[in-house]
Amino acid sequence: MLEAADKIRSLPPYILAEVFAARDRKLEQGVDVIDLGVGNPDLRPPEKVIRALHDSLDDVTRENHRYPSFAGLPEFKAAIARWYSKRFNVSLEPGSEVLPLIGSKEGLAKFMMAHLNAGDTILIASPCYPAYLGAATVAQASIYEVPLLEENDFLPRLEDIPAEVVKRAKLILVNYPNNPTGAVATDDFYERLRKFALENDIFVMSDIAYCDLSLDSKFRARSFLEFDRNKETSIEFHSFSKSFSMQGWRLGFACGNKTAVGNLLKIKTNMDFGVFMAVQRAGMAALEDSEALTAAVSDVYRKRRDVLLGGLRKNGWDVRPPSATMYVWLKIPRSYASSAEFTGDLLEKTGVVVAPGIGFGKYGEGYVRISLTVSEERLVETVKRIREAGFTY
Ligand SMILES: *Cc1c(COP(=O)(O)O)cnc(C)c1O
Questions:
Q1: Which of 44, 196, 257, 356 gives 20 to 30 Å between its CA and that of 376?
Q2: Distance 286 CA to ligand 1 centre (A)
Q3: Which atom of ligand 1 is nearest to the CA of 239?
Q4: Is ligand 1 within 6 A of the CB of residue 211?
Q5: pLDDT tens digit string along 314-360?
Q6: CATH number, position 22
Q7: Ligand 1 pocket, 104 CB below 6 A?
Q8: How far is the CA of 249 from the centre of ligand 1 (A)?
Q9: From the CA of 391, how far away is ligand 1's center (Å)?
Q10: Does the C-beta of 205 come closer than 6 Å to ligand 1?
């Protein structure tokens, strides 16, 4: 009998998969399901970017269809450096400090693989994007979930991490604007994180997949590299999936500390072939116009957020509107013992799918995540069904 490796066998059950199975059973029964469970944007990539991909596919003078270089397309890396300078006023050396990724999920997992030996400790701010926990498990790391609590604005209290955990920790992974809570980082937090990292020799992985989904006109996310200006102790991960709705295209990048980027390149060189060159060229088109393109996407999610929260508020759910991301992090009604119980009951009575907080790590319990990935019309319908089924906070 073929046995899976320990690193696979120790993977926790994928809780969200159960929710999706329940959704599929409802769909089979012919229920008009409203799926707010997955963070899968329903928008199309920008026209301009689609056209750039077409042009790249048709261009026979370039070698777009061949194996890309492991290190990524130099023009794309130069475009990333220009964008970073314009967006964050951070300078990057394209050759050694930037690396295109086949989506940031790939980069996050391989970065852990490249730096964690079995038993090494990684601090993961939780609740979190579930793939962090899976990737760290596959790397056979010892995971310490740092709680993100509402009373601390979902920012970790670094001083509360036990000293012996800090002492053995090698990496810390943070994600702001945050999936699933919608929380954003303060300058003060990033300052403290930098000090904490340098003092304790812990390397920071900063995932800023949502840096350009601002739902509040006054809010503009910052890069951790604005604080770690010499790139002493961090690497940052970006994605084209959320801000440009290009999730199926698989495009992201990592940037920051040279050694870290080099180690990531080394493992990628042995495991994949990099991003399709035509997609990297389309990525250049997205970055060129990023301000206008991401403003348009943010606008869609902002309107949806207001429709949903306005409706829920009338039913007694007082939710703090998130300033960024495409998620609403909602406390479950007091009468429910767990997020899974509430999620199940909500689906049963309304046909609305939301993601139970426990699927995002142990500190997600007590909440559900709602993705704003359906039209305003469907969100109005969602609120109506929740009201008619008698759900109040
Ligand atoms: C969606 C998401 C990703 C993955 O993005 P890809 O670039 O599509 O792999 C990474 N981090 C967070 C926090 C996400 O929500």
A1: 356
A2: 17
A3: 7
A4: no
A5: 888 878 899 999 999 999 999 999 999 999 999 999 999 999 999 99
A6: 3.90.1150.10
A7: yes
A8: 12
A9: 31
A10: no
107-109-115 Cα angle (round to 5): 95
Q: Which two tokens stand for residue 215?
A: 């739902």
The tens digit of pLDDT for each residue in 240-291 reads 999 999 999 999 999 999 999 999 999 999 999 999 999 999 999 999 999 9
38 shares its domain with 76: no
End of a domain among 289, 316, 344? 289
| Res. 129 pLDDT band, cuts 50 70 90 | very high
Q: Within a domain: residue 1?
A: no
| Domain finish residue from 269, 289, 309 | 289
Angle, alpha carbons 212-216-222 (nearest 5°): 45
Parent domain of 230: 47-289
The phi-psi region of residue 89 (left if phi > 0; otherwise alpha if psi is between -120 and 50; otherwise beta) is: left
| 353 in Cβ contact with 347 (< 8 Å) | yes
| 14, 191, 212, 217 from 110: Cα distances, Å | 20, 27, 24, 35
C-alpha 247 to ligand 1 mean position (Å): 9
CATH number at residue 276: 3.40.640.10
Q: Of ligand 1's atoms, which has the minimum distance to the CA of residue 108? A: 10
DSSP designation for 154: T
Ligand 1 center from residue 66 Cα (angstroms): 27
